[in-house]
Amino acid sequence: MSPKDVKDIVLNIISTVSPDADLSDVKEEEPLRDQLDMDSMDFLDIVMELRKRFKIEVPKEDYPQLATLAGCVSYLLPRFLAVGADATTG
Amino acid sequence: MATDERIVITGVGLTSPIGDTLAEMRRNLLAGTSGVTEIETRFMGRVLAGVCRFDETRHQSRKDRRRGTRAGAVGIYCANEAIQDARLALAEIDRSRVGVFLGITEHGTVETENEIHAIREYDYDTRYWSHHHNPRTVANNPAGEVTISLGITGPHYTIGAACAAGNAGLIQGAQMLRLGEVDLALAGGVSEAIHSFGIFASFAAQNALARHSDPARASRPFDRDRNGIVVSEGGCLYVLERLADARGRGARIYGELLGWAMNSDASDPVLPNTERLCQCMQQAMERAGIGPEGVDILNTHATSTEVGDEREAVAIRQVFGDYPNVSVNNTKSYIGHAMGAAGALELAGNLPSFDDGFVHPTINVDNLDPACAVRNLVVGEPRQVGRVDCILNNSFGMLGTNSAVVVGRYPGRGEA
Q: Are residue B236 and residue B280 in the same domain, yes or no?
């Protein structure tokens, strides 16, 4: 599991949540909500997919760390490694 | 605001098992073509159903569809189509003066069944229960999704009136226009019922779910061999306006809501009360300023159940038995029972009669049950009657809720 694997998994989850979104040019350091017109319910969809696919729990107080794609990668990489997630599962 | 303000229909948007436009639906009604098919449903296996195949992405993004409900998708499709049909540019009108009034039999059943089924996979751990469930299952969901789709900021709600809900939605829209609460009403009914297994299971438990080797012949109101209901989905929304407003903008007018009535049986949760059915029809006609001699087409509610069809026939004979002018038909023989959408869809199927003078038949009456004999039941083939001025649209629902709506040609006799 590499940072790129995590990024691909997150983008795959976002493509499920926002099937019409153009994900070809997502800026890693800018808030996902601003780039992709996502709201708090969409964000909860991402949290739910992480739970369903990888049994990763994201406590509410950690939500701000997932605001950007870069933030998602740095927050999730150790957690994916901890649960032994396979990059192909995403 | 005058409480006798005239209310007219200026747009229609619909989806049904026999078409996703009024023209397509009408073609199939005149051709005698059923839309009933067979589907696979959870725990029940193969069942007969009326399925709609409108393009959900025509007016709704895939993201919004994912977050919403099938009933919402039906409502959004029908509302957008009705607005376009009415040749209204929503961006140019005051959308705080537009209301959405949708009849439903139930809502939330489909979504709750799906959620419980989904968390079974996680050993019923409620952390896996969707945060979308509450907005999906509040009873106003279908109407609310319409307001979001169209940016409507006037009032919206659903009206729960069982199988009379389609008429009830129409009535509510008309009343809100007369009260001056809105200037445009999107009114009618929607159903997503086929996506719930529980509805099929409950009708089956009552021995009221239709069975037939040929799906197209399963819904057979008034036929001697009828054996139950075909559950269907669908939707029909009308644009309703006050006549003065419709004329002011040069709108095409499909017809005028001349009168309506709703009452309650107050007798049985399931079996209809013929005396109350009679009273409902009579009250609607009285309010429309007509008698039985004034009705040209009577669309029956009849759902293809043994008792329900018979009791409605008794009521029709009582009210219309002496009147040879009334042609009687039924739409459920084609599309099954579209639940909350039924009354609204069935009215739509008859509206083109004002233009073409045909009464569409009811189909699948191979052997008329003598107990269901009514005068001038149009069977199998459409009947050309010359001029149609008035349609009476019946819808009767569980817990004894009854509705009847009288729609007249516009302009009527003697009017310019």
A: no
User: Among B193, B216, B248, where does a domain finish?
Assistant: B248
Pair (B42, B122) in one structural domain: yes
* Number of inter-chain CB pairs under 8 A, A vs B: 22
Q: Is B117 a catalytic residue?
A: no
How far is residue B253's CA from residue B22's CA, in Å, rounded to a whole number?
Answer: 14
DSSP state of B271: S
Which residue range forms the structural domain that includes residue B363?
258-408
Claim to verify: residue B304 and residue B362 sit in the same structural domain: yes
Contact A50, A13 (CB under 8 A): yes
CB within 8 Å: A19 and B66: yes
The structural domains of chain A, with segments of one domain joined by +, span 3-17+30-89
Cβ distance of A48 and B61 shorter than 8 Å: no
Q: How far is CA B106 from the centre of its chain?
A: 14
**Interchain CB distance below 8 Å, A17 and B63:** yes
pLDDT per position as a tens digit, B64-85: 999 999 999 999 999 999 999 9
Measured in whole angstroms, how far is the alpha carbon of residue B201 from the centre of its chain? 22
Determine, yes or no, domain membership for B271.
yes
Q: What is the CATH number of domain A3-17+30-89?
A: 1.10.1200.10
The CA R_g of chain B, rounded to the nearest whole Å, is 20
Task: Determine, for residues A17 and B66 on separate chains, whether the beta-carbon distance falls below 8 Å.
Answer: yes
Domain membership flag for residue B367: yes
Asked whether residue B354 is domain-assigned, the answer is yes
| CB-CB neighbors (< 8 A) of B63 in chain A | 17-21
Q: Are residues B244 and B297 in the same domain?
A: no
Catalytic sites of A, residue numbers: 39
For residue B130, the chain A residues in CB contact (below 8 A) are: 48
Answer whether B280's CB lies under 8 Å from B48's CB: no
Whether residue B39 contacts residue B233, with contact meaning beta carbons closer than 8 Å, is answered with no
CB burial of residue B398 (10 Å; 0-12, 13-18, 19+): middle
Q: Which of B62, B66, B127 sits opposite A51 (nearest CB)?
A: B127
pLDDT for B182-233, tens place per residue?
999 999 999 999 999 999 999 999 999 999 999 999 999 999 999 999 999 9
Same-domain status, B283 and B219 = no
User: Which residue of B63, B122, B131 is in closest CB contact with A18?
Assistant: B63
pTM: 0.96
Question: Which member of B59, B195, B212, B301 is catalytic?
Answer: B301
CB contact under 8 A, B128 and A52: yes
Cβ-based contacts of A48 with chain B (< 8 Å): 128, 130-131
* CA B137 – CA B125 distance, rounded (Å): 20
Number of domains in chain B: 2
Last residue of a domain, one of B248, B276, B295: B248
The answer, yes or no, to whether residue A90 has pLDDT greater than 60, is no
